């Protein structure tokens, strides 16, 4: 969790991301959650191509802009001094996209560095837990496809942080006990196997 905070802080997006996942702006968080799930349902479940989704959104944006422009000309609901090009913006700005790509690149680099760390370590507990994690992820990949994992991670990003904030002490205690029990189990089993060998 600390590594994720550092990564987001490095790119200057910790505060906006925290506001979104902790539902500080409920409408924006709900929109992002629903749009991610809707994109998954359209592309993966229903089988609509991603380019079709993007094209349809572009057509809807065109229709929305033309309708708003007609209403503005007639003086209905939208005052003439409102700049519609600034009011109706669906696509994210270039900086948001480039920051997202940089964050994904940093995550992949961190994963690669972790794998190198695990492969070069002399600590058998760390090696066993690393290999176990990689085996688990490989097995998980055979059962669940990447798009399903991504949508589950997307939903979890909006559901887990508020739940954690409300129950932080209990969750920290349970996680601490689980990590400690796992480390003791691995140490005992690895020491026994080393002695037998």
Can you summarize this structure?
This protein has 9 helices and no strands. It is mostly helical and 197 residues long. The relative contact order is 0.09.
Describe the structure.
The chain is mainly alpha-helical and 197 residues long. Helices cover 83% and strands 0% of the residues. The protein is built from nine helices and no strands. The chain has helices at residues 2-10, 14-21, 26-46, 50-74, 84-87, 94-120, 124-143, 146-166, 168-196. Helix 3 (26-46) packs antiparallel against helix 8. It is elongated and about 80 Å long.
Oligomer: single chain
Note the beta-strand portion: under 5%
In helices, the fraction of residues equals over 70%
Distance between the first and last residues' Cα = 37 Å
Main sheet characteristics = none
Mean pLDDT: 84
- Reading the helices and strands in chain order gives HHHHHHHHH
Model regions low in confidence, pLDDT < 50 over at least 5 residues: none
SS-based class: mainly alpha
Number of strands: 0
Radius of gyration: 23 Å
Shape: elongated
Number of helices: 9
Annotate the secondary structure layout:
Layout: H1 2-10, H2 14-21, H3 26-46, H4 50-74, H5 84-87, H6 94-120, H7 124-143, H8 146-166, H9 168-196
Helix pairs in contact: 3-8, 7-9
């Amino acid at each position: 969790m600390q590594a994720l905070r550092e990564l987001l802080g490095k790119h200057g997006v910790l505060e906006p991301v925290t506001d979104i996942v902790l539902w500080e702006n409920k409408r924006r968080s709900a929109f992002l959650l629903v749009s991610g799930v809707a994109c998954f349902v359209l592309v993966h479940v229903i089988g609509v191509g991603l380019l079709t989704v993007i094209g349809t959104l572009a057509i809807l944006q065109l229709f929305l802009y033309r309708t708003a422009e007609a209403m503005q000309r007639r003086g209905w609901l939208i005052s003439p001094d409102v700049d519609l090009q600034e009011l109706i913006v669906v696509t994210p700005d270039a900086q948001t996209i480039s920051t997202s790509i940089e964050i994904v690149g940093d995550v992949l680099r961190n994963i690669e560095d972790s794998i190198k760390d695990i492969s070069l370590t002399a600590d058998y507990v760390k090696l066993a837990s690393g290999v176990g994690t990689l085996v688990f992820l490989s097995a998980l990949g055979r059962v669940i496809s990447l798009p399903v994992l991504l949508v589950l991670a997307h939903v979890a990003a909006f559901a887990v942080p508020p739940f954690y904030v409300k129950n932080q002490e209990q969750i920290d205690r349970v996680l601490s006990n689980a990590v400690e029990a796992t480390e003791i189990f691995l140490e005992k089993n690895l020491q026994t196997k080393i002695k037998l060998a």
